[in-house]
Amino acid sequence: MTTTTRPSLAITATGLRKAYGDKTVLDGIDLAVPEGTVFSMLGPNGAGKTTAVKILSTLIKADGGDLRVGGHHLAADPQAVRSVIGVTGQFSAVDGLITGEENMLLMADLHHLSRREGRRAAAELLERFDLTEAAKKPAVTYSGGMKRRLDIAMTLVGRPRIIFLDEPTTGLDPRSRHNMWGIIRELVSDGVTVFLTTQYLEEADQLADRIAVLNEGKIAAEGTAEELKRLIPGGHVCLRFSDPAAYRSASLAVREATADNQSLSLRIPSDGTQRELRAILDWLDSEGIEADELTLHTPDLDDVFFALTSGTDHPAKQSAAQPTDHPAAQPKETVR
């Protein structure tokens, strides 16, 4: 008989609640984050993402809920929780008036490392994050990406098993953001658990093992990126024609297609599977119809986000049922 061992959980929350006055920020949410994974929380501004991070990292107290981090009960033993976590917020904790190395040594002192241990940890982490050449320079001279790397390096001085990254790539250019993704992947490969909040949907898609979409204080949906994408309708194949006669023939033959006479294109509902795409191509061949371009769109995390958080203060309030109304819904794959 084969038994399946469930992974140990780094973070659990049952019924997490937090309110400020009459405004409920977190309305009884449940979380379960396995060790050695990236768990990403998505949500519009004001959804409660940063509040969740502050509670789970002991910075503020919850109004209710059973919360455990690193195996320790948050309310009963917050100091034990602090001993196993690291936190990097939206705004860098780096002191710009001192050097990168001095920032690292200050963090080592806060973790009560000996002078020798502190210098060794600082040197190793500065090298790991490609900051050795800049170590003796004031941190105020660092670029945004360098400051973020130094911020995370400082977080790692205490060798935390769990790291909370609250929108860590906000304001970074695309190259620096991709570099940060590499750092996060390295951390997880070393067994670290990462709790990531972000508004960059591609970031969650690239990094997260599981994603929770937080909206108005509640978890609107949770799952892998692929599971979440399957929740949203709107997949389709678009056929474009240059020959009006071929376009008319295809329009008459495919009753379920949505026709656009101006662009000579047909949009056919599709779940994006290889079998269905092959069926469309076989049908075109059997009818002797030749499309000049075939594009395939499948729902992505943008569609999920817009559908689950519509009506919030996010600048894009489109439903995923209207996939062509925002840039994220443009075709992802083209076959000519």
Show the helix and strand layout.
Blueprint: E1 9-20, E2 23-34, E3 38-42, H1 49-56, E4 64-69, E5 72-73, H2 78-82, E6 85-88, H3 100-110, H4 115-128, H5 144-155, E7 162-166, H6 174-189, E8 193-198, H7 201-207, E9 210-215, E10 218-223, H8 225-229, E11 236-240, H9 244-253, E12 258-260, E13 265-269, H10 274-287, E14 293-297, H11 301-308, E15 333-335
Parallel strand pairs: 3-8, 3-9, 6-7, 7-8
Antiparallel strand pairs: 1-2, 1-4, 4-5, 9-10, 11-13, 11-14, 12-13, 14-15
Main features:
alpha/beta, 25% strand, 5-stranded antiparallel β-sheet, 11 helices, elongated, 336 residues
Radius of gyration: 25 Å
Rounded to the nearest angstrom, the distance between the terminal CA atoms is 51 Å
- Classified by CATH, the class of the largest domain is Alpha Beta
Question: What's the overall geometry?
Answer: elongated
Total helical segments: 11
The CATH topology label of the largest domain is Rossmann fold
Which CATH architecture of the largest domain is right? 3-Layer(aba) Sandwich
Structural class category: alpha/beta
Strand content: 25-35%
The CATH superfamily label of the largest domain reads P-loop containing nucleotide triphosphate hydrolases
Number of strands: 15
| Order of the strands making up the biggest sheet | 6-7-8-3-9-10
How much helicity do the residues have?
A: 25-40%
Let me know the average pLDDT: 85
Order of helices and strands: EEEHEEHEHHHEHEHEEHEHEEHEHE
Instruction: Report on the biggest sheet.
Output: 6 strands, mixed
Indicate the low-confidence ranges by residue numbers.
312-336
Count of structural domains: 2
